[in-house]
UniProtKB/TrEMBL annotation:
InterPro entries: ClpP/crotonase-like_dom_sf (IPR029045), Enoyl-CoA_hydra/iso (IPR001753), Enoyl-CoA_hydra_C (IPR014748). It comes from Candidatus Marimicrobium litorale. Belongs to the enoyl-CoA hydratase/isomerase family. Pfam families: ECH_1. This is Crotonase/enoyl-CoA hydratase family protein.
Length: 260
């Protein structure tokens, strides 16, 4: 690959942050420069109270071919990792509190799958080609695929695709739960934004609490998730958004939530 390092684009639309992988001439091959910028974008989404939902997408014909391996050799050998002060886009460290909808198209390999699975909802174009092919490069996936593939698709489906390093299409990805919707090529980003806009009509603190509850169940188990339900609900009842939710119900109008 060339020395052109690529970038991450960001655009605010209302309460939505669009985050784009931007190295289209190289199939959005992921570089350390892009990684730093993606961390910054995710951290901005997490920490900015006016941003309620993120949409991740890839510029050009493909989502991403994954890591540009020659540019990552040193950090892989050192086992470098974050210090927890910023958001980890693959969610193995500090995870983003806000919902993330991911739009994928064309080649969606390795890290591309891991970024998608670290989010919450995945919209795939009908031309998607997926592969978790690290074993063919002498390594194994370290961005969450070995965990979330099993979580989303079950053991057999996960082992089938992880161990064979095969390429599979959008229909198979939907069958095993890696994607939630398949749309015609060119409509994936528009549909992801539509879903993000629907999510953004909800009370943002309640939406975040909903995601947190589900994550708590996955990461800490049933008892921990149940134990947090009532305290979290009590905290939500102390917000202005609850008053607005009740009032809008009485007045039969759309609620205007503020996130406080």
């Amino acid at each position: 690959m060339s020395n052109e390092e690529g970038s991450i684009t960001t655009e605010v639309r209302g309460h939505i942050l669009l985050i784009g992988l931007n190295r289209p001439k190289k199939y959005n091959g992921y570089t350390p420069t892009m990684a730093k910028q993606l961390v910054a974008a995710y951290t901005r989404l997490d920490e900015d109270n006016d941003l309620w939902v993120g949409v991740l997408f890839g510029h050009g014909d493909h989502f991403t071919a994954g890591l540009d391996l020659p540019k990552w050799t040193d950090s892989m050998e050192q086992g470098a990792s974050g210090d927890g002060s910023h958001i980890d886009p693959v969610g193995l460290g500090r995870a983003c509190r806000k919902p993330i909808v991911t739009a994928v198209q064309g080649i969606t390999y390795t890290l591309g799958i891991e970024l998608a699975l670290a989010g919450d909802i995945v919209i795939a174009a009908d031309n998607c080609r997926f592969s978790q092919l690290e074993p063919k490069r002498g390594i194994h996936a370290t961005g969450g695929a070995t965990i979330r593939f099993v979580e989303r698709g079950g053991w057999g489906n996960a082992m089938y695709h992880l161990l064979t390093s095969d390429e599979f299409d959008a229909d198979e990805a939907k069958r095993i739960g890696l994607v939630q919707e398949i749309v015609p090529l060119g409509q994936q980003l528009e549909r992801a934004i539509e879903i993000a806009e629907v999510i953004a009509t909800g009370a943002p603190l309640a939406v975040q609490a909903t995601k947190a509850s589900s994550r708590r169940f996955v990461e800490e188990g049933f008892e921990a998730a149940v134990a947090a339900l009532k305290p979290t609900q009590k905290a939500l009842f102390d917000t202005e958004d609850v008053d607005e939710g009740v009032q809008s119900f009485k007045e039969r109008r759309a609620a205007q939530f503020k996130g406080r």
